[in-house]
Amino acid sequence: MVSTATMSTMRSLTQNWSFTQVGGEQGTKHDEWLAASQFPTTVHVELLKAKRIPDPFLGLNEWDVQWVGESDWAFKNTFEVSPKELAATNIDLVFDGLDTFASVEFNGYKILDTENQFIAHRVPVKQYLKQGANELVITFSSAFLKGRKLEKASGKFHLWNGDSSRLHVRKAQYNYGWDWGPVLMTIGPWKPVSLHTYNAHFTDLDVRSQVSEALDVKVTVDFTLSEKTSGLASIVLRSAQGYAIHTENDLQFESGSARAEFHFSIGELELWYPVGYGKQPLYTVEVTVSDTQGNTLDMKTQKVSFRRVRVVQEPLVDQEGLTFLFEVNNVRIFCGGSNWIPADSFLTTLTPERYRAWLQLLVDGNQNMIRVWGGGIYEYDVFYDICDELGILVWQDFMFGCGQYPAYDSFLKLIEVEAEQNVKRLRHHPSIVIFAGNNEDYQLAESLNIVDYSDETSDFRETKFPARYIYERTLPSIVKKLCDIYYHRGSPYSTPGTVTTDKTLGDLHQWNVWHGSQEPWHNWDILAGRFVSEFGMEGYPNIRTVDYWLAGDASERYPQSRINNNHNKADGFERRLELYLVENFKHAFDMDSYVYYTQVMQAETLAAAYRLWRRNWRGKGREHTAGALVWQINDCWPTASWAIVDYFLRPKPAYFTISRELRPYTVGMTRKEKKIFANDLSAAKFTIATILEVWGTNSTLSEKTAKLEVTCFDLHSSWTAQFSKDVLLAPNSSTELYSGDLPGQPVRTKQSEVPRVIIVSARLIDASGTVLGRYSNWPEPFKFIKFPPIKDLGLAVSSDGDSVMLSTQKPIKGIILDVEGEDVKWSDQAIDLVPGDPQIVEAVGLKGREVKIRFLGDGTA
Q1: Strands (E), 89-148
Q2: Assuming Cys at both sites, which of 47, 587, 700, 721 could form a disulfide with 53, CB separation 3.0 to 4.6 Å?
Q3: pTM higher than 0.85, yes or no?
């Protein structure tokens, strides 16, 4: 019979919490304790629910709540302890996460001081416990003020975004404000607090698998207990259906640790694949440990999967440099995905349902990778659980972003604990395929000219770039010791000795569209890198989101208003937005129009990047670009930013254009003008030919036969031309399909000759007549196009209640659908429509309402 007194038991303390402002009068009255509405929680969340502060997401209210983050706060809990709990050999209080500087007292005894949001703490408290009521008080000091003191003592360093004191504080860096987020310095117990009773418990469970190139599997299970005790362990590996696949009974252990190892031949276990390439089977490992009398001490389960992952950096057959690509189970994967920032300024408001909705949007948008950016948090467990389930590859940064971080001894000790805890917590997830040391810290160092890439052997702590010690010594050694996940020094990072802007090595943040040299988006092809882990373009969110933050103030409902400015944090955003708008569109400035034009611009920009970079994935040895991760998929508050889905999970049109470019089969086109001079002596005698190139992509692992159908339309006449050909799309590759003169476009001999407005529609069609992929190529810039009157378009819009049917007699560019009132869940947006190719858009929630339609040249500009 099992003695329950020896069982490890964890009890979450979720009830009877209250909080107060320490030594202040703004949030609570003197000695006033307000009941917490939930737990875990943070101060802003509770003050909002108690109606003690205005909503910082509305208007200019962000600036009226700054005092919250600059004040001290206390949280108090009273809980009962039973005689049975008191009888346990060991009793600990476990704090999964405190934000950030906290002093903890238990029954009047000080038991803990904390200074890192990202780590958990365990404190033995048996000696302080008493039967009946016990009081726990956690006092939080202002992280902002603490950081300023640390900076004064240890030095001021360079950074991009936020207050420079953040570099000394191990707290989510985006709380200090970023170029897409507000300054909201959260404070409080942001993760669970629990009472743990036990005789012995697991302090570490390390389940690893090695999948060989032949795809057989070796599994090792290592565990360590809190006590150096002896006993027996049982290990069971179960399938997703709950069947026991392998059982290891009566495994003897001594000194509180043991290892088991077992092997599986090819096919005995199902392998885990990224979405689109196979299944995502999730197995369970159950480990139970008992003492020598047969009493169960502890039991732990862990979800695991089995896959072989390599980051391949090898010479290309036709270009300089090395590949930078991910290979899963011997399959090379083009990674089309997004960057992820924390999905809320107030993390404790996030629910598993919201996480699932976000990540399902990613998968529904045909994306297969997400990068957890280094200025936020190591995400909650549920985030990675869902990625495992959905087959999303995860690029995981360590939490350093855009800064010249210090490396003094006390700071390094915090980093070591942080890295060890989080690597142990995350390493079993099959979705995580890379750890990266930081976000853009090497780039910042290059901009300051403080990095010597010829030096690979120094200690670095006494240099002007001391954090190299963290990224090149501390973190890689911890990752190597604790897991088998690939470690990359930073993002972006090339190779040792090379600058981060080298497009032939490593990963690249390509910000020369928007930032930097502000290149036209049409130059994405020449801006490509081996793996583009950041790039982007701003666009306004859904007009409903704009109206939400305007909070009914009609006088502020124009693009340049003070409130709208506060809800776009990017430096110089007005100049940059207008630069790209005026270069490409004839646009209007009313609020609704500005939302429309920035959205279409963002959609065009980002789709072009994915289209051109997928073309660069050309088969083994020619993977010139192996990934594209847009900045960013999400927002942490209602704002105008680079996000492709806004805070309320409303996709922008760019989400849909990216989705189209990441379908298993796509077709792409470019048109380039080629000027040929008659001789070397004259600049006035030349001809201008327009060259059309067409290619297809196929992300599946089988070749695909299809018909390429190309149709050309003259926007201002009834002229059309069409050709088609049978094509074979190579597996897991792009395939060039056509190159030649643009049909219908005469060769010009004068620069003043206005070219015909020829729209080219290309479709890939399979044997059953199904359209595998479509794309319409328009002449650019769009501002030069004289669009036909609406009455001449022959546009037809009809609905059956759940979908909208679109057809036209003239090509139409950039269709956005909307309705009055509550939003509709559309299956597509930013649609290009051509004659003879009607399209159907699903419309969940349409409920018979009239559909509003907007497009370029619709007369509103």
Answers
A1: 90-95, 101-106, 109-115, 121-124, 132-141
A2: 47
A3: yes
